[in-house]
Amino acid sequence: MLRLIVLTAATPLLLRADDQKEAYSPSKTVVVIDKAAPIMASEKTLASVPAGTVLVYTKEEGNWLLIPRFGGWLKRDNSLPLERGEEHFTQLIKVQPSSAAFHYRGTVRLQGGQFAEAAADFTEAAKLDPKSSSPLVNRGIAKTGLGDVAGARVDFDRALELAPKDPFALVHRATLSIEENNLPSAKTDVALLLEVAPQSVEGFNCRGLIHLRENKLDEAIADFSKAIEIFPQFSGAYLNRGTARYAKREFEAALKDYASAQQFDPNNIRAFNDAAWLLATCPDEGVRNPKLAVQLAEQTDAMSDLPVGNFLDTLAAAYAADGRFEDAIEAADHALKLMPEADKPPTVLRLEKYRQKKAHIEEPSVTAPVTPAP
């Protein structure tokens, strides 16, 4: 159970608007098709982004897209909506198969959750360019999505044999190590990452997550704050800093971080789920808001393509907090049908509470989830 995002009635709530004008990309995500697409601010070039890069934008102004990752604008003509990227690169592959074309199509498929297809594309890219580390790193990410953690580590290791100081490979191997609770390995990779890239937001975020796992909350907050200082739109760093502050029972400070996390990523389904959980179960009665918890939990369920056990578990807790115990029992029963066996015991205990017409209250704990890089 992820229990990280908090919003109260006094905190801005970002609702999903269905009546907005048609966007260039429905997901507000594009893939760069120009070899070196500039990110501009006024007449200054802030960055040059290679083809195949997937970017999220937050605003459209004529032919320009605002890219928060760089704090500047990308010309729309230099990109395609993510929804059209796979078709575009497939046509390129038909005309002239190349490592780059397979790699770019794999990146698009990876973004869309097509992990097996993405892994196959990265394999072809690696065959055509065996000295490049990037296809191996991305194949490792795809394998992680497929649950092949051992295979992912092999790919990250091989990538770092080819390029020992590749920041991209270091951050993803460190992230995998954190997920496996292999903190010594994660620390080694993060130390090297921050040595070769001292302003790496991913490096500070990873180091903060290590501190969270070690329950060093002040150190974690300092690292997440540094990541935010470097990249003020980094939603994941706000989430993680909120986690640390929540664990310290600094609820008001956590509220501000959670609101910022949603502001910079309003489609972050975890933000809605975790907000609902905290609002339903927080030990501070002044923070609990059952009706808003129900609203957020129902939004989470609506945003998910398929029913998810943890999300339904949160919905059940929200219903119970609001006194809707029959609805809570139904949601918890549904959650248990979807959950893996290892995750079921806490939900079973909560279900018994709901049957006794009791809400669930929970003390803060450090869960230290791993958030994606920006």
From TrEMBL:
Keywords: Lipoprotein, Repeat, TPR repeat. It comes from the Bacteria. The keyword Lipoprotein applies. TPR repeats lie at residues 99-132, 133-166, 201-234, 235-268, 309-342. PANTHER family: TETRATRICOPEPTIDE REPEAT PROTEIN 6, UDP-N-ACETYLGLUCOSAMINE--PEPTIDE N-ACETYLGLUCOSAMINYLTRANSFERASE SPINDLY-RELATED. This is Lipoprotein NlpI. It comes from Caulifigura coniformis.
